[in-house]
Amino acid sequence: MKQAFIDRYARLTSPIHRLSTGFKIKFTLLLLALLLLGFPLLGFTIALPGYGIYTFLILTIALLSRVPFSFLLTRSALVLPFSALIVVVNYFSGNLALAQMSETLIKSLLSIFTLLLLTSTTPFHEILKQISRWKAPGLLVIILAFMYRYFFLLVAEIEALERATKMRHASVSGWKRIRVYANIVGLLLIRSFERAEKVYDAMRMRGFTGDLR
Amino acid sequence: MSRIQTRNLSYSYSAGIQALQEVELDLSSGSRTALVGPNGAGKTSLLLALAGLIRVSGEIQINGTLLSPDSVDDLRKTMSLVFQNPDDMLFMPTVIEDVCFGLETLGLNEQQILERGQEALAQVELEGYENRSAHHLSYGERRKVCLATCLARRSSLVLFDEPSRELDPHGRRNFIDLFQQMTGTLVLATHDLELVLETCAQMVLIDGGQVVIVGKPKAILVDQKLMEHHRLEVPHSLSRHPHVHC
Amino acid sequence: MHIPDGFLNPQVTLVSGGISATVLVLTLRKVNQTLKPEQIPLMGLLASFVFMIQLFSFPVGVGTSVHLSGALLISILVGPRIGFIIMTVSLVALALLFQHGGIFSLGANTLNIAMVGCFGAFGIYKLLPGKRLALVLAGGLAGVISAILCAVELSLSGMLDLSTALMTMMLIYSVTGAIEGFITMLILDFLLKVKPELLSHYS
């Protein structure tokens, strides 16, 4: 699974990577608010120059950030399946409004691109540190931290399990494969519970009593 | 430094399997002791018991203080446990956060915590790794970060569970070098008998949850009959007597 | 299905965001009152698990694949409140790290997936008699609720017209919901065999 490198460009060096995390988060949210709440209220024709400026701005940022365009574009394409669903449904019910659909698609692509710029120029742990400085609930921050840390181990485990089952169930399909899937998920779940116990022991050894600053 | 005394220590799993049976030990402060025994002998259970992580019957005294639910938090401030699997004890997003986790409970301020963390990383030769993530490190490096978490705490009692397992020869040597520099009472559970010979002045052979014998590694490990009886073997360096007479 | 950014109008975005934020704050407050320290790492590990299974599609042959939201499963294991927090956190991470669902549509996604999956599906499951069939029914019915919410959100935003939206969404969601319930049942069967102590609430 190539997805294992979720914030793989976050450690490059560029003027954008050097900006403070707090500023980047605020700026991203501001941009998104403009795009998703501001422009729609103006209406498409009035907001049109706005979209132009917006696109120019984020393309400039992307260029400065040295994050490969191919990465940003392939990731942005993740909105396409959902868009396709909406288009197909509208097409068959005879309600397809092309102008509106293209506006939606533009908004969608621009917003995913904007968010990608934040996460591929800022390591995830920096984002966590920043939101914790902004007094985000400690429980949410620590869950996010653990999730980020142990996700990679789960990916490795699931890959190993998948390989092992492929070796043994190469020709099985349909109903039996659903069983195999259920067992894999069950096994990962048990391992998560067991690891949680050990991690708790390790935390206790270092003085953890349940306080989340 | 911490002296460890146990009296009549017993423990059984919820399934009813007896993991420890009336274990009596007295490890002097500053001693280096290896716990040796076959799989399932009770080595890990004994370490967990000393760390107060499992509820046992009998008594454990650490430097004269009885280990109890009331005293365990304070006692843990003076001890560390290095887990078998580094992924169980490196749970934070970055190396420095892992090394510094919980140091504030030792009464240190932010500046001191950071200094301790960096010093510990330097000791294990991982300067500059502060903002790396554990999942981007090699296995050997992760084991070193685990050691750094203990070094940062400056514990007077350190418990190691299989510290040399899965390390390559270079990583193992690295561990031995660091281990030799450590002060305090050190207890390690291991199958690596050469490691025992090299690093520990004392060993405890346990099997079936019971202490079989306590003594000098060289004297115990050389006993072939005893070793085989407990699913162990005489280490290579003791089994042959190279004749170097020329 | 995670709604990306751009498909909801400002009104729907703000209202769904407001509802989800309020429920999250109330749930956090409630959970914090009874939280045991050992549950903190468990929530982290389970969030990682849920995050993983939402990404991981498992091919079952003939060009189809299945994947779970995990909401019903987690709620049965650790209760709906903790389950809801875990699900919400995983949705945040999915949006931030994998662009599955947007940031401004997080409110709507929390409503459709986490809230319906944890409180809705689990509630229905608890009300229904029987255990194994109840899971499939609860999954399917919760799927219908999700579908209605999703259809209303999208049609209020002018994306789809309400009746078509309801029909298509209900068709998709009730089937995927029932499949989720069914796979949840298989997973619980497996857990009962291998580690029954995890299922003190389920028997």
Q: What is the string of SSEs of chain A from the N terminus onward? A: HHHHHHHHH
- Which whole number gives the mean pLDDT of chain B? 92
- Would you tell me the structural class of the helices and strands of chain B? alpha/beta
Question: What about the largest sheet of chain A?
Answer: none
**CATH class term of the largest domain in chain B:** Alpha Beta
Order of helices and strands of chain B: EEEHEEHEHHHHEHEHEEHHH
Domain module tally of chain A: 2
Termini separation of chain A comes to 35 Å
Mean pLDDT of chain A: 87
CATH architecture of the largest domain in chain B: 3-Layer(aba) Sandwich
Whole-angstrom Rg of chain A: 22 Å
Can you tell me the CATH topology of the largest domain in chain B?
Answer: Rossmann fold
Instruction: Give the overall shape of chain A, derived from the CA principal axes.
Output: globular
CATH superfamily of the largest domain in chain B: P-loop containing nucleotide triphosphate hydrolases
Output the radius of gyration of chain B: 19 Å
Helix percent of chain A reads over 70%
Largest interface by Cβ-Cβ < 8 Å: A-C, 82 and 75 residues
Question: What is the secondary structure topology, with strand pairs?
Answer:
The complex is a heterotrimer of chains A (213), B (246) and C (203).
Chain A: H1 15-18, H2 21-42, H3 44-65, H4 69-76, H5 80-93, H6 98-119, H7 124-133, H8 138-168, H9 175-205
Helix pairs in contact in A: 2-3, 2-6, 3-6, 4-6, 7-8
Chain B: E1 4-12, E2 18-27, E3 32-36, H1 43-50, E4 57-62, E5 65-66, H2 72-76, E6 79-82, H3 86-89, H4 95-100, H5 110-123, H6 139-153, E7 157-161, H7 169-181, E8 185-189, H8 193-199, E9 202-207, E10 210-215, H9 217-221, H10 224-229, H11 236-239
Parallel strand pairs in B: 3-8, 3-9, 6-7, 7-8
Antiparallel strand pairs in B: 1-2, 1-4, 4-5, 9-10
Chain C: H1 10-34, H2 39-55, E1 58-61, E2 64-66, H3 71-78, H4 80-98, H5 106-127, H6 132-156, H7 162-194
Antiparallel strand pairs in C: 1-2
Helix pairs in contact in C: 1-4, 1-5, 2-4, 3-4, 3-5, 4-5, 5-6, 6-7
